[in-house]
């Protein structure tokens, strides 16, 4: 049945769409549109359903990506990807964890739509240049050129980080304990010298409009947010988002603030704080991700 084939490939299709769009909501829209197209086709005429569905989702995601470009240029303050709650096993797949990390998703935002599609399909999911050419309507030679250009761009801007793990979560827990005690020096000791804090409020809640850099400034910013955005009844939950250790701040049963932590060498190198309620409304469900069993480069 068409529905069974689509359901079987859904984790892979969602992962591709999300990495191309940086939005779980937009990825779900793409999957809905793709399913409608798939349901209109006789499955018996499709030799390789997964390859067919990947092509459909890629094309729909490219259309979406071009449509949202202007919307993101008008976004109020810093833009961060819509966070997705990830299962612990995502951290065991280094390529997958890095590809959905906040830092990598921000790098992917700087690529044009074709470059992003080619990089995601080839370097993350392991599709050949010929397979990608059939998906985006370009020649194989053109895809090779796009892949080379996109890879150079990404490698020049990528940040090292450690996927979610027990060790990484211990660093986060130490940071939150220091923050709760108000110890500035203890906070700074857990931060890398070039640490970056990015907040996304979307103009709907109070959030820093620009990235904050440096140990002292980030430490004081975090303490300020904790004073103004939390109460004695605020519940802090430890989990993983985008393959990174994260903390959820829940006020009166409502998720108010989500912070994903980028860690390298036992120090926090990046804090990604999402407060835009539009990006938090679906942040509770764990998203199953899948690379389809392909072998790719080792980061």
UniProtKB/TrEMBL annotation:
Keyword line: Sigma factor, Transcription, Transcription regulation
GO BP terms, alphabetized: DNA-templated transcription initiation
Domain RNA polymerase sigma-70 region, chain residue ranges per copy: 7-67
CDD domains, A to Z: Sigma70_r4 (cd06171)
Domain RNA polymerase sigma factor 70 region 4 type: 102-153
A Gene Ontology molecular function term of the record: DNA binding
Known partners and oligomeric status: Interacts transiently with the RNA polymerase catalytic core formed by RpoA, RpoB, RpoC and RpoZ (2 alpha, 1 beta, 1 beta' and 1 omega subunit) to form the RNA polymerase holoenzyme that can initiate transcription.
NCBIfam families with a match to the protein in the record: PRK09636.1, sigma70-ECF, SigX4
Family according to the record: Belongs to the sigma-70 factor family. ECF subfamily.
Name the UniProt record assigns to this protein: Sigma factor
Organism of provenance: Streptomyces purpureus
